[in-house]
Design a protein that fits this description.
Blueprint: H1 2-30, H2 37-53, H3 59-82, H4 90-112, E1 128-131, E2 134-137, H5 138-160, H6 162-172, H7 174-179, H8 184-209, H9 218-231, H10 236-256, H11 264-276
Helix pairs in contact: 1-5, 1-8, 1-9, 1-10, 2-3, 2-4, 2-8, 3-8, 5-6, 5-8, 6-8, 9-10, 9-11, 10-11
Amino acid sequence: MLGQLIVSGLAVGFCYALLALAMVIIYKTSEVLNFAQGEMAMISCFIAFLLLESYHLSFPVALLLTLLFAAGLGAFLEFAFLRPAKDPTVIGLIIITLGFEMILMGLAGWKWGPDQRSMPFPISGFETYNVSGLVISKINFWTIIICLILISLLFLFFQYSKLGTAMRATQQNKLVARLMGIRTKRIFSFTWALSSFIGAVAGMFIAALTVLDPPMMMDPLMKAFASAVLGGMTSLPGAAVGGAILGVTENLFGGYVSLAFKSVVAFAIIVLMLCFRPSGLLGKHFVKKV
């Protein structure tokens, strides 16, 4: 039982990790917490559902079109809502993301209604693998593997690619990056597109593991935020580690203590980390001198 709880916790935890990474990428660039991240993933999942169920596209084609839609949605939010904001403050930008969240939630409720649906997914949630006596469902196994691959690719992208270097330079000092010839506005649009792309992948796995409905991402988003706080809002590795820790912890808590209080773990982690280590496990604490 312990092994199965850990594996299923890791599957959910890596989904939290992807969402947390999407939030951290935005936060490192603009110090904005994108509270529309969950609904952007949710609407992307409904687009995938529409392509699969109504237009009967194959899953790879529907997935590709969905991820392109998600990237476009992220770039659209930055270009149409955030960039035109006059003299924006961090609070003002956060409120814009909250407004965009409500717009997407309303659109999903109007178009698809409140009914819960099952996401058509090529990996079975009922078939299992037997690994050294440990029974692992195929959906959990491949969720862990694919999320790990995607997280690794993200780290390599930021560390070694020219675009990743440009993004890190923009995050550290926008003015100097602009003086060095980096087109920071394009970098911001790409950052939001990449964040939405990552969130959509996490949303697809969450829809496959649970159900598809308009409020499906509200709980995972809060737990992704808790994961980012746990690992450090300025640390990409911290967000990944925080998601894995949170997923396993809450699953063990639900299995051995109480399912009723399983979701309390995430909020307890937020409170404790903000009280005792605000920078998170792997985040760096900076002090501004004035």
